[in-house]
From TrEMBL:
PANTHER family for this protein: BETA-AMYLOID BINDING PROTEIN-RELATED, TM2 DOMAIN-CONTAINING PROTEIN DDB_G0277895-RELATED
Transmembrane segments: 7-26, 32-51
Top-level taxon of origin: Bacteria
TM2 domain mapped to chain residues: 2-51
Membrane topology: Multi-pass membrane protein
Localization terms from the record: Membrane
InterPro entries named among the record's database cross-references: TM2, TM2D1-3-like
Main location: membrane
Organism: Candidatus Moduliflexus flocculans
Coiled coil start-end: none
GO cellular component annotations of the record: membrane
Protein name: TM2 domain protein
């Protein structure tokens, strides 16, 4: 495990002409040598790294843990998009949660699947994407796309392409005149 304290001590070597040694310590050999030969990109890069060292140490430690067989769970929910990173080692019994009981989820078909699709279409104000359907059902993305295309063929929905280029299936019976934009929806509701 790399230490921020050691990285800061090596950063201080830049004050005496050893710029970039902290980068070499953190596994950034190419930029470390560049800093060494250019005096820390003429001092600018060296100064910026003073503030970047904690993040560089954290990334290098995460890489090392992944090399040793750890799993990484990233939670991107939180204030201002902050990311929380949790590292679990497979070797330790405490870090690995107990296995869930194996229950094979039956694939949704027929009337139950159509009812779920219609509830989702209503909840999403008449517009539904294959990604939303897959996230809220036991269907894969490909299966969700095929099911929605089948609904279009039967005449119950229309396929549209959004300005961003994604495919959106519109259900006319659930469309609102002024629906909220996708980014205004607080969270997806699981049915």
């Amino acid at each position: 495990m790399k230490s921020s304290g050691i990285a800061y001590v090596l950063w201080c070597a830049g004050l005496f002409g050893g710029c970039g040694i902290h980068r070499i310590y953190l596994g950034k050999y190419g930029t470390g040598l560049l800093y060494l030969f250019t005096f820390g990109l003429f001092g600018i890069g060296q100064f910026i790294d003073l503030f970047r060292i904690p993040g560089m140490v954290e990334r290098e430690n995460l890489k090392e843990q992944l090399r040793q067989g750890a799993t990484v769970n990233v939670n991107i929910h939180g204030a201002a998009g902050a990311a929380n990173v949790v590292v679990e080692h497979r070797q330790t019994a405490q870090a690995v949660p107990p296995p869930l009981p194996q229950t094979k989820e039956e694939p949704e078909t027929g009337k139950a699947l159509e009812a779920k699709i219609l509830r989702l279409a209503r909840n999403f104000h008449g517009r539904l994407t294959p990604l939303e359907l897959a996230a809220n059902s036991s269907l894969s993305l490909e299966e969700a796309d095929n099911v929605l295309e089948n609904i279009v063929r039967r005449g119950y929905a229309n396929m549209e392409v959004s300005d961003a280029g994604s495919i959106v299936y519109e259900f006319p019976g659930f469309l609102e005149l002024n629906p909220p934009k996708r980014n205004e929806l607080d969270e997806y509701e699981t049915i």
